[in-house]
Design goal:
Strand content: 5-15%
Number of strands: 2
CATH class of the largest domain: Mainly Alpha
CATH superfamily of the largest domain: Winged helix-like DNA-binding domain superfamily/Winged helix DNA-binding domain
Order of helices and strands: HHHEEHHH
Radius of gyration: 19 Å
Largest sheet: 2 strands, antiparallel
Shape: elongated
Strand order of the largest sheet: 1-2
Distance between the termini: 36 Å
Length: 123
């Protein structure tokens, strides 16, 4: 089960803060800030889905992510590749490099990343 767009936005703040009370999360939002009840509803749904845990501290709860950002996005990207690119990473890479208007410098950086990963797997 994934996160909705608004849950993903809140999760980004929680990953950034690592641990946060409701007031900390509300402070992260740009103006106009959502109502505290809206954020409370989102956090409850995310807790029910197993993405967020909390520690009761008196009357307040300190929230923390149960899923690493890298794990969440890795699963997300792999799902996109499977669903839209016939489970072909090369089809995805071709689409990504041609459709995202990368600069020559960014393409060179990607090439270096790929070459380093090949080297790492070759060892």
């Amino acid at each position: 089960m994934g996160l909705t767009e608004s849950e993903e936005e809140l999760m980004q703040y929680l990953w950034k803060l690592e641990k946060a009370f409701m007031r900390d999360l509300l402070e992260e939002y740009p103006e106009p800030k959502p109502a505290p009840t809206t954020v409370a509803t989102l956090i409850k749904r995310m807790t029910d889905k197993g993405f967020v845990g909390y520690k009761q501290m008196g009357r307040a709860r300190q929230y923390y992510p149960l899923v690493k950002k890298s794990d969440y996005f890795s699963k997300h990207v792999n799902g996109l590749i499977k669903k839209f690119f016939n489970n072909s990473a090369s089809q995805f890479a071709s689409f990504f490099t041609s459709e995202t208007e990368l600069t020559e410098e960014e393409l060179k950086e990607l090439k270096d990343i790929v070459e380093k990963e090949i080297e790492r797997k070759h060892k």
